[in-house]
Design goal:
heterotrimer; A mainly alpha; B alpha/beta; C alpha/beta; B: alpha/beta; Rossmann fold; 2 domains; 5-stranded parallel beta sheet; C: 6-stranded mixed beta sheet; about 35% helix
């Protein structure tokens, strides 16, 4: 049964699932890296992205591409607002580390309730962005899934370009490295924090939008992905972008191969076992750095 | 308590007692059902179906008691789907109202399990309705004497397994499945329903020479089935059985199954019943086999006739629950009529030998556990196939509006 | 050029600076003196806008008390933080470019070339990862990064801390040359003699209060410094 073809098919399945994990974890890691905040509301931006796209597509009757753009912009603004009213004021206090966890957890619940009141609990769905079947190296795949793979690769490449080669990206990295020194360079640190929060939320929203045709849109859809994303950032190393991306793909592949080798029932167990081994051998995660001095 | 409220209560009790006294020339059937709470919609439908049966009997002069006929009164108590509320309602019906027959509970298994413990204290026959829990039947089987007046008018939870087994037998005779038994694979949700379906189906099919290729258990609301589908394709079983309680998981599976161009025989249990499922799955359901398609007023003549009659009388949408409610009350009144007596023992004796065709199937009780018998001829979980966008019952033959069509024959 | 008027600073409920008033004239080099915990770094951070203050901070007559640090950089103030505080994961060149964050792109690249010529030894370090550099090299990059913003006022917090004697001499030479070139400089440093020798004016703090301020030669001539450092002086409010 374990033919090379079958294994390759599972690796591909894992890459596709993993690309969504990577996208979620990248945002989570970006926020942690720049402001040392564990954003428990990250899954809700995944959910909001899907609902915004659905509303733009069905209610405003926009074509798909503009609907997605509107949804991403909407989530960016929503996230900046959330940052401004919850995270930013707390970060100005001393000893805010734990209070941001409590605050983002609260935001998560509030956003779920707002979604429930706005869109109801009925499961909804977006149409496939692309129809048809594609054959990738002998494996039959729906075009929508290939789109997921490509979109995530493009987005991650775009993000790396932004961070590496633009003035804005350098400012984000500077703030991540040392916010006080960044301020001393003339960088508006609070604004960079807000923008980073918004961009990270957009990554989650994009994941939600691309997945919307495959999974049903509902107010609680953000919960499973954020749990996966937490596993990924621990696996890859908190705050490390390569860690988030590679960790995401790795988790996806491990899960798919776990299903192949054992059974679906053991999927989570196999993934968590790998995680425990990694933490045991490298407590800082695959790509994490040991906690730097404050 | 003030004097005034005390007086009001006393007056009320006297009026009730008088009312009960004047109604003594009637046949009284007590019903415990969820008229409020989470299952209220089902409860109301059941009640309407029962009312239809009572009206039909009364229009014909009532049920035979002794030499004459007596009209039927239905007394309803709300259980709110809660065992303790249901039991107190049943107690009231049995002691105060002194009903001649108790349908209790008409829906929730948990309430029926509680009410059946009242049975040994009363001579009145009690029958549960839609409750499906196998535990009820097992209790009766294990203590026949104690529960001899308690009957279960619905099938056990292994009905799906039985239907699938019977269906595969037909498919084998048609040469569509291996004659000596094939290989079965499961993809089910991490729920009691999922697990018990795996246990029941694999037990029954193993007896027929089948082997289990794999059991894939996924978490609730799982939506990415590609790893499972790849594995299924590699294993290539003869039959894939899926059970989900969430329509989103079911719809994802069916859509991805379709996208991957899977060709095996696939039977979905339970989730295709949920209204949301059809909307989410869209055209991907084409060709899928599923169960139970309990009520099909569009294509099954028996169901259509009932639906028309019921709609005219009740002036509401007619669904599975209305039909079930109708059959439960028909059962109660048929056995009283056959006994021609309100003596509990005579009614119980008639329940033991009743053989009544009704809109949802033919009712007969298995003497070993007082449970409605299951099979193509009795109650069943009819199996349907989506053909050109419409779910046609393909098994049992008595209800079938079409035959199985293999994938790709469109 | 820079004036503090009755500046107090609190860390939470804890007051670390009490009613400090001082004046740094344009073109001078001023040193902030005082024993450990006197509030030297806090004075520099209050000037740079990295801590919230009570009282007024005036820059070229403009009240900048409520202006965040990043905006003060745009006005021509540049702070080089204690212990260099480079962006260690980035190259020296990226650190320098970030120092010129507020400059237009073309001007920024131009300024990079100017700064390289102003601070000897930086050129060879540009391609290296900042975290891999020695303490002295890091301080050169930190100063160069501070200069990237084209400041008129340069604030240096403990520029010699943790450096080798050779590196101390290099850094000292650079600061002296910047002062000679007319830049206004405020720095603090533990070594009193070196500080007084390098500066035109001196400010003496103790326990968060201003003890003395004036020309370095005058401050050095009296015994006030010795009394503060050797604990014989008792701080009194308004002793300035």
């Amino acid at each position: 049964m374990m033919t090379p073809m079958f294994l390759w098919e599972q690796v591909l399945n894992g890459l596709i699932a993993g690309s969504m994990y990577a996208l979620m974890a990248t945002g989570l890691s970006l926020i942690w890296g720049t402001m040392r905040v564990l954003n428990f509301a990250h899954g809700e931006f995944f959910m909001l992205g899907a609902f915004f796209a659905l509303t733009a597509f069905e209610l405003l009757e926009l074509p798909l591409a503009p609907a997605i753009a509107v949804a991403l912009l909407g989530v960016f603004l929503a996230a900046v607002l959330v940052h401004r009213v919850t995270v930013a004021p707390l970060m100005r206090q001393r000893g805010w580390d734990f209070s941001t966890i409590a605050a983002t957890l609260g935001v998560s619940i509030v956003l779920q309730d707002i979604a429930l009141m706005t869109w109801g609990e009925r499961f909804q769905s977006l149409p496939y962005f692309v129809e048809g079947i594609v054959h990738v190296a002998g494996v039959r795949l729906p075009a929508q899934r290939v789109l997921i793979l490509l979109a995530v690769i493009i987005v991650v490449a775009g993000l790396v370009t932004l961070l590496r080669f633009t003035r804005f990206g350098m400012a984000i990295r500077a703030v991540a490295s040392d916010p006080e020194a960044a301020s001393a360079c003339g960088i508006n640190t609070p604004a960079i924090h807000a923008a980073t929060f918004g961009i990270a939320a957009m990554l989650a929203a994009l994941a939600g939008i691309i997945l919307a045709p495959i999974i049903a849109i509902n107010p609680w859809m953000g919960v499973p992905p954020i749990l996966k994303a937490f596993v990924v950032v621990v696996l890859g190393g908190l705050g490390s972008l390569p860690g988030a991306v590679i960790g995401g793909y790795l988790l996806g592949i491990i899960e798919a191969l776990g299903v192949a080798a054992f059974s679906s029932e053991w999927r989570e167990a196999v993934a968590l076992t790998v995680l425990i081994i990694v933490i045991w051998l490298r407590p800082q995660g695959l790509f994490g750095q040991r906690i730097r001095e404050a | 308590m003030t004097i005034r409220t005390w007086i009001r209560g006393a007056v009320g009790a006297v009026v009730l007692a008088l009312a009960a006294g004047t109604a003594s020339a009637e046949v009284k059937v007590g019903v415990v059902l969820p008229a409020s709470g989470p299952a209220a919609t089902t409860g109301i439908s059941l009640r309407d179906g029962m009312r239809l049966a009572v009206n039909e009997w009364n229009a014909r002069g009532g049920v035979r008691v002794g030499a004459g006929q007596q009209s039927v009164t239905m007394i309803i108590e709300d259980s709110q789907s809660r065992p303790e509320v249901g039991v107190s309602g049943a107690q009231k019906l049995l002691s105060r109202d002194q009903v001649h027959f108790l349908i209790g509970e008409a829906f929730a298994s948990s309430v029926s399990l509680a009410i059946m413990e009242l049975s040994p204290q009363f001579r009145t026959p009690i029958m549960s309705g839609q409750s499906i829990a196998t535990a009820i039947s097992n209790k009766i089987r294990d203590d026949r004497e104690k529960y001899r007046r308690f009957f279960k008018a619905n099938f056990n939870s292994d009905v799906y397994a039985i239907a699938l087994r019977d269906f595969t037998q037909v498919m084998r005779t048609q040469g569509r499945l291996p004659a000596g038994g094939g290989r079965i694979a499961f993809v089910v949700e991490e729920t009691d329903a999922g697990r018990s379906n795996v246990a029941d189906v694999s037990r029954l099919l193993r007896e027929e020479g089948w082997s289990v290729a794999t059991v894939e258990v996924v978490p609730l609301n799982h939506t990415d089935f590609f790893p499972q589908l790849s594995k299924l394709r590699a294993l290539n079983p003869d039959l894939v059985v899926t059970t989900f309680t969430s329509p989103q998981a079911g719809a994802s599976f069916v859509r991805q199954w379709n996208e991957q161009g899977m060709r095996m025989l696939h039977a979905g249990i339970y989730y295709p019943l949920i209204t949301e499922f059809a909307r989410l799955a869209g055209r991907s359901t084409e060709g899928m086999v599923w169960l139970p398609k309990l009520f099909d007023p569009d294509r099954v003549a028996l169901h259509r006739d009932f639906a028309q009659r019921a709609r005219a009388s009740l002036n509401r949408e007619i669904n599975t629950d209305v039909a079930y409610g109708y059959c439960y009350m028909m059962l109660a009144l048929t056995v009283i009529d056959a006994a021609q007596s309100l003596d509990p023992d005579a009614i119980v004796a008639e329940l033991q030998k009743v053989d009544m065709p009704c809109v949802m199937g033919r009712y007969r009780f298995d003497p070993t556990n007082n449970t409605a018998m299951v099979g193509a001829d009795y109650l069943s979980a009819p199996i349907a196939q989506v053909q050109d966008g419409i779910s046609h019952i393909i098994w049992p033959p008595a209800l079938a509006s079409s035959e199985y069509r293999p994938a790709g024959s469109r | 050029m820079l004036r503090l008027e009755n500046v107090s600073v609190f860390y939470g409920a804890f007051q670390v600076l009490w009613d400090v008033s001082l004046d740094v004239p344009e073109g001078t080099t001023a040193c902030v003196l005082g024993p450990n915990g006197a509030g030297k770094s806090t004075v520099l951070k209050a000037m740079a806008g990295l801590v919230p203050v009570r009282g007024r901070v005036l820059y070229r007559g403009q009240d900048i008390s409520r202006l965040p640090a990043a905006r003060r950089v745009g006005l021509g103030m540049s702070l080089i933080l204690e212990r260099r505080r480079l962006f260690t994961g980035m190259t020296a060149r990226e650190n320098l470019l970030l120092g010129g964050y507020l400059l237009p792109r073309v001007r920024r690249d131009e300024r990079l070339r100017e700064v390289v010529s102003l601070v000897p030894g930086v050129d060879a370090l540009l391609g290296k990862r900042a975290g891999d550099l020695s303490g002295g090299q890091q301080q050169l990059i930190a100063i160069a990064r501070g200069l990237m913003a084209e400041p008129s006022l340069l604030l240096l917090d403990e520029p010699f801390l943790g450096l080798s004697p050779k590196a101390v001499n290099e850094v000292e030479a650079i600061i002296m040359s910047l002062g000679r070139a007319g830049m206004t400089i405020v720095f603090n440093e533990q070594n009193v003699r070196k500080s007084l020798a390098m500066s035109d004016r001196a400010v003496l703090l103790e326990g968060g209060r201003l003890i003395a301020a004036g020309p370095s030669a005058e401050i050095g001539a009296g015994d006030i410094v010795q009394r503060v450092y050797f604990g014989t002086h008792v701080a009194q409010g308004g002793a300035a």
